[in-house]
């Protein structure tokens, strides 16, 4: 599959994640404003992919001229929770004094690194999962999309599935649909189907019941920001999954490149959680599903305390808080 986000010599190219699975289409983003719009609409999403987006945002800003740092700052603030976005911006900005070509080279090296680091992190995690679970083949549970589409290539938590599937060790994956924007049923299920991995989509509310029935060997999730103490911000619903997993003695493994670790934050209490538009819950596929103007609580992420997480795994192996 082509990279989720890339540079074609003149523009940022992305696989439009608002269109999948109905349509596979590529968008070309030529300006900082177009990139910010794509980030906020989740046309490009997922923490590692946002790292690439941040760096390429600085490339677009250098080409446009004007106040590059102010434009870069707007890119960094397009979404607040995934630290990778501001990390990618900061890495590219470090090269600003060396000129536009140096900024581009840095952005391209972030894209190249991403696949390598995600392959390594998910490879370590696959070995850890095999050590934690006795059953073969494995029945895994995935929340949101932490696959190829959430990274530049390969995936983090879903990368574990790719490693294990290559060895014939995956029976099936239960895919949380991931309300309200359905990153699970639209994107993760699409990726699993492409790869020929057996899967079943379930409503998020079914996850605890699946664990109670004993059909989940391990929960695999990605991360948007990991605090120094090992608390993990990830897609809304991860915290509830972790509570259910602990109750049912099911391991929960978090997989992320080390760029997702934010050592400047002592704990998850300090992580800014994005609140998204009420419309995402008031309507579905253009049809109103609440009373008009219903009040809405729509956090995009939650924080799972470190003590509910079996392991956080990066390209360096198990992360020690
Ligand atoms: O709102 P999204 O779709 O960007 O949220 C993405 C997630 O929460 C992912 O689990 C996380 O970014 C890790 S992706 C490898």
From TrEMBL:
Record's keyword terms, sorted: Amino-acid biosynthesis, Initiation factor, Isomerase, Methionine biosynthesis, Protein biosynthesis
Gene Ontology BP terms: L-methionine salvage from methylthioadenosine
GO molecular function term, any single one: translation initiation factor activity
Top-level EC class as recorded in UniProt: isomerase
Active site: 224
Enzyme Commission number(s) from the entry: 5.3.1.23
Sites marked Transition state stabilizer: 144
Pathway(s) the chain acts in: Amino-acid biosynthesis; L-methionine biosynthesis via salvage pathway; L-methionine from S-methyl-5-thio-alpha-D-ribose 1-phosphate: step 1/6
Residues annotated to bind substrate: 45-47, 79, 183, 234-235
Pfam families found in the cross-reference section: IF-2B
Keyword Isomerase recorded: yes
Reaction equations catalysed: 5-(methylsulfanyl)-alpha-D-ribose 1-phosphate = 5-(methylsulfanyl)-D-ribulose 1-phosphate
InterPro entries: IF-2B-related, IF-M1Pi, IF_2B-like_C, Initiation_fac_2B_a/b/d, M1Pi_N, NagB/RpiA_transferase-like
Keyword Cytoplasm listed: no
Alphabetical list of HAMAP family matching this protein: Salvage_MtnA
Cited PANTHER family: METHYLTHIORIBOSE-1-PHOSPHATE ISOMERASE
Cited function: Catalyzes the interconversion of methylthioribose-1-phosphate (MTR-1-P) into methylthioribulose-1-phosphate (MTRu-1-P).
UniProt similarity note: Belongs to the EIF-2B alpha/beta/delta subunits family. MtnA subfamily.
Name of this protein: Methylthioribose-1-phosphate isomerase
Organism expressing this protein natively: Mycobacterium gordonae
Gene encoding the protein: mtnA
């Amino acid at each position: 599959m082509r990279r989720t986000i890339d540079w074609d010599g003149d523009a940022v190219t992305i696989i439009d994640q608002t269109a999948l699975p109905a349509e596979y289409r590529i968008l070309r983003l030529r300006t900082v404003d177009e990139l910010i719009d794509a980030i906020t609409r989740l046309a490009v999403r997922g923490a590692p992919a946002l790292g690439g987006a941040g760096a390429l945002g600085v490339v677009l800003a250098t080409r446009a001229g004007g106040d590059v740092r102010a434009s870069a700052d707007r890119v960094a603030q397009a979404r607040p929770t995934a630290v990778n976005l501001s990390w990618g911006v900061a890495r590219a900005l470090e090269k600003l004094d060396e000129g536009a070509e140096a900024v581009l080279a840095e952005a391209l090296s972030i894209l190249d690194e991403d696949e390598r680091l995600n392959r390594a992190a998910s490879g370590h995690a696959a070995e850890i999962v095999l050590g934690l679970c006795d059953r073969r083949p494995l029945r895994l549970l995935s929340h949101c999309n932490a696959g190829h589409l959430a990274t530049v290539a390969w995936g983090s938590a879903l990368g574990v599935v790719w490693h294990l599937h290559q060895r014939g060790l995956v029976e099936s994956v239960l895919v949380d649909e991931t309300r309200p924007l359905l990153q699970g049923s639209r994107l993760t299920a699409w990726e699993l189907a492409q790869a020929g991995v057996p899967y079943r989509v379930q409503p998020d509310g079914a996850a605890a019941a699946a664990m109670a029935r004993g059909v989940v060997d391990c929960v695999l999730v990605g991360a948007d920001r990991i605090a120094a103490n090992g608390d993990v911000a990830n897609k809304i619903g991860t915290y509830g999954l972790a509570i259910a997993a602990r109750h049912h003695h099911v391991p929960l493994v978090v997989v992320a490149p080390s760029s997702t670790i934010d050592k400047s934050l002592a704990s998850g209490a300090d992580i800014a959680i994005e609140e998204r538009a009420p419309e995402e819950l008031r309507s579905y596929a253009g049809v109103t599903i609440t009373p008009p103007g219903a009040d809405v609580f729509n956090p995009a992420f939650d924080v799972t305390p470190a003590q509910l997480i079996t392991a956080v795994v990066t390209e360096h192996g198990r992360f020690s808080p």
